[in-house]
Structure prediction request, 615 residues.
Amino acid sequence: MSTTPDRRVSATSAGPAAADPVAAAAAAAAGAGPAVASPVPAGPAAASAPAASAPAASAGPPRRRAVITGLGFITPIGNDRAAVAASLREGRHGFEPVEFLQNPAIPVRLAGTVKGFSVDSMSWRDWRWPAGYDLPRETLRGLAPHGVYAICAVRQALRDAGLAPAAIAGDDGTGLFCASAGSAMMLHGHLAQMHAVRGERGNPMGVVSSIAGTLNFNLAAHFHVTGAVCGFVSACASGSHALGYAADEIRLGRLRRVIVVAAEEMNAETLLPFAAMRALSPRRDPRLASRPFDAARDGFVGAGGAAALVLEDAALAAARGARPQAELAGWGQAADGHGIAMSHPEGRGLALAMRRALADAGAAPADIDYVNAHGTSTPVGDRAEALALRAVFAAGETPSARRPLISGTKALTGHPLSLAGAMEAAFCVLAMNEGFLPGNPHLVNPDPVCEGLDLPLAAVERRARLVLNNSSGFGGSNVCHVLRAL
Amino acid sequence: MQPTSSAQSAPDPSAKLEHFPPEVRDAYARFRDTGDLAALQAVVLAAVRDHMPKPTDQPLSDELRLMEDLGYDSLAVAETVFFIEDLFQVRVETAEIMEVKTVGALKEFVAKKIAALKAAAPGAPDPAA
Prediction:
């Protein structure tokens, strides 16, 4: 395997990366990526040069670049591009009052609900979804409720990318990467049935509609995916992991296209265990319950939905005339090594993940125009992220005029767990293309720990060139993406 | 074949027919009340149709093969068996169902199961009642 170095990584990246030998190695590895021989049969697209907008490589074969050509949204703030863009721009939240288990004593009063669907029942025969989505019995019988969201989001993303489902069916260059924690509701229901008959029989669809791989199993079969299929389970970083590894598969030439989909249910079984951890806000006022980085924040608001992104080799997208909406220019991950659920108190792992993502993209902190923060509105998590952001975009490294705007869009959506990172990456791509940066509409009194961070209240009309998207999950799993406008 | 040990704790089996047409629910009630074999077979046919992965309106004649002709896969077979087990409170072994290849064979199999169940517990209430 040739490892001809790619000298494209800019000198500026040496700044943040220099302090972290692993980030420096990541930058070098990113440069070496394009030289890896591709096992994917080289069609006309694979053989062609990268799109004209690609930065010029000074030597070696062209670097493969992962671009995003399609987005799909089933979210609390909208079920299509236009609705989501309007909600983000106008600061419109997607919260509704909820009461779980017919028990008003439960201190969870709000959630980021998914509109236009009815998937509360364990039986798919009772489910309803918006018109325009074809969900055959053959598919429904093995799905979990969030699988319905996921299929609708993928259908949208394919349409947005100009791809008919038949174009990916049986294509060995197209893979499917999923992020899901499984369906706690279905698992509970099926196991309750099993216990009721003392284990003598169970629903044959119990496994495939419940466990953490349920999206992979069902969507690979539904869309006839043959390139590759796998799933990611890293709690609230799952969607971001799926997206990052999808980009790597493309940059390494292993796949030419990856459909990334992340989804989560919003029901008692998924959400209430977080109430047991005292992680949820008990507030009833939707303007006050989810307010990342506010001094009075008191927990997150649960949410459900799905997001899908079509990632493609830039050369493939160019060859078929698809418009790339952004490049996933780099990503990085790092672990806290600290706690089961609590973030490292100073956001050590998240800061390292940001630096690695920047190095992978060949970018300096001063190049970043906007950061979509993980910002769940929990006291500990937001504090850790604020400190990590300050460490990466500190005054010494980033002149104040070049500090990024930062916002937490969970103020509007709530926190959809496994879905968060992929959904927010899709939000970033959408906002970059629409020419605005989302704000922090529920921020009243910024926590003093955020000193020096630029947290606009309202959306800003500005076309970002380079965007950072943060995610953190239980166990100290931190993942960041760098998205570049094209 | 034996009745499931938890029949007492299971919910009313007829609840599993809620989404079926009224004539199927009526057939189930008739079978339960009178043991009418034709009514039983109507319910089995409805169950077969309800579990076809790719539904069609074609008549379900006895000679049709579940997999080759009706598009069943192994999961659909397992689902149908699960449904029949719950509906008629019988237990079907995997080896038994592997022998059932056609619509007619399934109808016959279910009828024999229920007859055997009654024979094994003479005087007992109808297991499906």
Q: What stands out?
A: Chain A touches chain B at residues 125, 136-138, 141-142, 196-198, 200-205 (CB under 8 Å). Chain A has a mean pLDDT of 89.
